[in-house]
Amino acid sequence: MLYSKPRSCDVLVEHGRATQSALPRRFTVCVWNWQKSKQKEWASEFSRLAQAADLFLAQEVRRSPAVKEVMEKTAYHWNGAVSFFSLKGKNPIGVATGCIANPLQVSFAATSREPVFRIPKMTLATLIPIQNAKRPLLVVNLHAINFTGIRAFEKNLRGAAEILLDYNGPILLGGDFNSWNHKRLRLLHCIIRSAGLQEVPFEPDLRSRWMGKPLDYLFVRGLKVLASGVRVTRGSDHNPLLARLEIR
After folding, report:
1. Taking CA atoms, which of 56, 68, 163, 198 is between 20 and 30 Å from 220?
2. Which SUPFAM superfamilies did the record assign (predicted)?
3. CB neighbour list of residue 88: distance below 8 Å, 6 or more residues apart
4. Does the pLDDT value for residue 202 go beyond 90?
5. How many whole angstroms from its chain centre is CA 17?
6. How far apart (Å, rounded) are the C-alpha atoms in residues 63 and 100?
């Protein structure tokens, strides 16, 4: 094996210190997959993005000591869900959500595994307090399963949808959905509609693609989209998404 699996008690991790008691009603979010990140370019790009965003959803986070040090220089409290540990360095790898406010609640789901190595793909859910709001914001950070057929992909998405359908307040869902063919894309949009979410548009659409299809998405419910954009970067093989949102 090239990795080791976390025990159930080791899946959820947290570090960093929040700088605010709640997220403002108008805030900026960044969604970025750090896959194949180059340390120097990634660190400088991430630092700039973190200064602009109040909320950060990251996928394929390899939390090495060097990366963790950069993450902890931000104004965020970080929560993560670990898929596996690298054998070299024992670094936790998975998804991570950073926010200027501490979450009220954190949970994870791992409904599907990649074939061959059986690596679980994580869905991380956090409830974030909002200033002068009746309900907190449900933030779901998802890295969808990749090298499988449509049934495993559907199981993965429906596991995330169950979290969304059980919540009546505002929702933000973002991440790398690995929606690289027509079947996956149709299924994604069908499940998103059933949960009452809307897709955040990006124009010009400079999102990273595979087989001509965008991989990264941001969906919302109970939020107004004020502005959105994609930043072209050399810090990763995915371009980060940015959106300015407001609680309705």
Report:
1. 68
2. DNase I-like
3. none
4. yes
5. 19
6. 19
Structure confidence by residue, pLDDT tens digits, 48-64: 999 999 999 999 999 99
Domain ranges, residue 42: 3-247
- Rounded to an integer, what distance in angstroms lies between the CA atom of residue 16 and that of residue 103? 12
pTM exceeds 0.90 for this model: yes
Q: What is the CA radius of gyration of the chain?
A: 17
What's the CA gap between 86 and 135, in Å, rounded?
A: 38
DSSP string, the chain: --EEPPPGGGSEEEEE--SBSSB-SEEEEEEEE-TT--HHHHHHHHHHHHHH-SEEEEEEEE--HHHHHHHTTSS-EEEEEEEEEETTTT-EEEEEEEESB--SEEEEEEEEE-TTT-PEEEEEEEEE-BTT-SSPEEEEEEE---SS-HHHHHHHHHHHHHHHHT--S-EEEEEE----SHHHHHHHHHHHHHTT-EEPP-SS----EETTEE-EEEEEESEEEEEEEE---SSSSSPPEEEEEEE-
Q: Which of 30, 3, 187 is nearest to 94 (CA)?
A: 3
Q: 24 pairs with which residues across the strands?
A: none
Residue type present at position 141: N
Q: Tell me the C-alpha to C-alpha distance, in Å, between residue 187 and each of 128, 227, 237.
A: 28, 27, 25
* Distance (Å, whole) CA 245 – CA 248: 9
Please state the domain count of the chain. Answer: 1
The C-alpha atoms of residue 61 and residue 67 are separated, in whole angstroms, by 9
Measured over the CA atoms of residue 118, residue 119, residue 120 and residue 121, the dihedral's sign is negative
